[in-house]
Amino acid sequence: MSSQLGKVVSLILIDRFGPVVERVGTSLYQFGSSPLLHIKKRTDLPISKIKESLTILIKYQLATFAVNQNENIANYSIDTDKVLLMLRYPKYINIIKKKFGDSSEMIVEECLQRSYITASEVILKVHERLTKNEESIPLSQLKNEFISLVNAKYLIRLPVNEAVDKPVPKLVEQEIHTLPPVDVILLQKFKAGEAVLLPDKDIYWHVNFDRFHQDMRDKIIISAFTKKFDENAGELVKILLQQMYIRTDPWADVTNPIPILEIKDLARKQKNLGQLNAFFDQYVNVIEQDHSNLIRKSGEASGGSFQIYLKDAYKQFAWELIEQCVMEKFDSKAARIFRLVKLKQYIEPNMIQKLVMIPAKEAKRLTYQLYEENFLHIQELRKQAVGGGGPSKLYTLFHIKLELVARMILELCYKTLFNIMTRRNHDKSTNKRIIDKKQRVDTITLGMRSQGAEEEQLAEIEEMITPPEKEIIARIEKNMKKLNSIELEIDDTIFLLQMYLMYN
């Protein structure tokens, strides 16, 4: 169990739900699956507060429950992965905005805020928000956008209770992608205040995080090939990944064969890929020969077929990420030693000093420094002397356990994430008075502007904040923006390492 992850989970829960929910969530994290009375004993909270906290955690899919040995009691567990995903919500919203537009972005935003919601309710809420913003979009268009999100599997149905007659519910997924029965005419009547019964009042929808993670996974691969070669190579990989979904489970280690002629035809249909079409075979050869091993030929007939090796690709990405970490944490000489050990797999210390082209004393220091920081590992071998007499000889070999190193860096990411969140909370609490004053002034200014106030009146209100306070606010905003940016970048590293560990 990761102590750093527990600290991050605690900060996320207290920031979004308050101290009571945080105490319940932390108890579940520390002690694992527990029934209600055990949680009460550990947290010393009233049963009513614990039930309320568990309701909130389960509603937002941050906790799960299962039947105890006593079938009348449920055991509750915290889902740390789902808690961490709350930091990733802005990325999900940004993905939808780029692919589907602003109104679809609002639909997903409402689903994330409410955790689950009916199709009719989210359509009405988004329509109301757009109306307030003086944007006019018909309900029928919002319905079509909701259906597009369902068809693209970004939204799925909430599981239903199968064990209706039992004390502990049993949730099962049924027809998760079946389109919702939304009636636009009934929605218009409902919006007008008429008493109508909406046909989907008991059908709830929630966000399918897996679908977003597939997009994020593909984006990393496409970005890697775009940076390494050019945009045409990235577009070729993008088409390959799109065709993967037609033939193969999205999370398979290796895809089913994809005919290269099919990829070629799809590339020809896109008018902006003239250079890719002109040098298609050369781009395929370059990507096939790349050491990431993303694609490999699986047949020769009709131009051949290719398979995508996602597991091997993410293993290579993990190697490159760790090498970059060694470079940043130590220096280029340490990175050279790390790459040599990776190349040789197992190597003696004296061979490192000979091959790495660094002074022996410095090479030895860096090697053992990498060992102390858990980037390198030692394997000791004993060789019996010839004839069975005399002492056995001990060989020390350096090697790298990639999975252990990846988990170590993941732990460092959690520690950094905790430090960033703590620093941000400290800045907010230290400057709470000025931040609250700025928010009050902004609220008053916004209200008066909507009432048609003159610029002189607005300027007088803004003068309530003195120049020194404005400097402090500017500095706070700059620091907050920097911390938020770092948080998103660390989440990218966490996601890449999680992908490697999942495939591994």
Automatic annotation (TrEMBL):
UniProt domain RNA polymerase III subunit RPC82-related helix-turn-helix: residue ranges:
8-67
User: Record's GO cellular component, any one?
Assistant: RNA polymerase III complex
Which residue range or ranges hold the DNA-directed RNA polymerase III subunit RPC3 winged-helix domain? 322-400
Top-level taxon in the UniProt lineage? Eukaryota
**GO biological process terms, semicolon-separated:** DNA-templated transcription
- Tell me the keywords, alphabetical order: DNA-directed RNA polymerase, Nucleus, Transcription
**Primary location recorded for the protein, binned into one broad class:** nucleus
The family database entries (Gene3D superfamilies) matched by this protein are listed as:
6.10.140.1450, Winged helix-like DNA-binding domain superfamily/Winged helix DNA-binding domain (1.10.10.10)
Where do the TM regions start and end?
none
Provide the assembly information: Component of the RNA polymerase III (Pol III) complex consisting of 17 subunits.
Q: What is this protein called?
A: DNA-directed RNA polymerase III subunit RPC3
What organism, scientifically named, is this protein from? Phyllotreta striolata
